[in-house]
Design goal:
Low-confidence stretches: 1-15
Largest sheet: 4 strands, antiparallel
Order of helices and strands: HHHEEEEH
Number of strands: 4
Distance between the termini: 23 Å
Number of helices: 4
Radius of gyration: 29 Å
Shape: elongated
């Protein structure tokens, strides 16, 4: 094969992984967005098989990048961070929805309880709230990760008039932190795709170098010794 033809083959190999990596990255982002939409209406019974199918397809795609030995671990990492990204984005969506349609009210803590102990699982605190008119604040009980309030304490919360979302304090309802966290995990998934693309390209270069190595050594030997006989000769 001539040097021009070899250069064209190498250029085609260089463009193909980049195009494939861009496609995989777009697919990963599409899955995150799609799972976020489905998470609002469907539970784990439906979403778990979808995540498994996503992981299987992702393994097939990543192996085509060339780094087959690391494809399984990379897929597990991408699926894990994508799942976390969807979970955090769902929290951000809840806070954003509460900010848009919620009403700020002054409520009184009338009851406090904590989750039952379940191994090492974190035990959240729950607070039942009543408005100034004595009626219960709509929605499930307010939740906190630490014991922040006492019974009889007055606090300002944003309540959902429809009663679908938990009341939250204005600081809790701010979705900025969750949005940044979700984007960070999504970028980590894309970074893993980029890393596997580099690994596959590096593996391909090493393989090509091993294939070209003996031929170039023979050419160099012939040029130095001026011995142009064949190997059999």
């Amino acid at each position: 094969m001539s040097e021009v033809a070899e250069d064209e083959v190498r250029a085609g190999r260089a463009r193909y992984p980049i195009a494939l990596a861009v496609g995989i990255g777009g697919y990963v982002l599409a899955v995150i967005a799609g799972m976020l939409v489905l998470a609002d209406d469907f539970g784990p019974a439906l979403l778990t098989p979808l995540w498994i199918a996503h992981g299987v397809l992702l393994i097939v795609l990543i192996r085509r990048l060339g780094a087959s030995e690391s494809s399984t671990y990379a897929t597990l990492f991408i699926v894990a961070v994508s799942l976390i990204s969807v979970y955090i984005a769902d929290m951000a969506r809840e806070g954003l929805t509460l900010q848009q349609r919620g009403e700020e009210v002054t409520a009184t803590v009338v009851r406090e309880w904590r989750d039952a102990a379940e191994g090492r699982k974190a035990r959240d605190y729950h607070y039942a709230l009543e408005g100034q008119d004595g009626t219960a604040v709509p929605g499930p009980a307010m939740k906190a990760t630490s014991d922040r309030y006492d019974v009889g304490q007055d606090i300002t919360v944003i309540a959902d008039p429809r009663g679908e979302l938990r009341p939250q304090t204005p600081g809790q309802a701010d979705p900025t932190g969750e949005a940044v966290g979700s984007a960070a995990f999504a970028l980590a998934a894309l970074g893993s795709v980029a890393w596997m693309t580099w690994r596959g390209s590096d593996t391909a270069r090493s393989r090509d170098a091993r294939k070209r190595g003996p031929g170039r050594m023979r050419k160099g030997y012939k040029a130095v010794t001026r011995n142009h006989s064949t190997r059999a000769e």
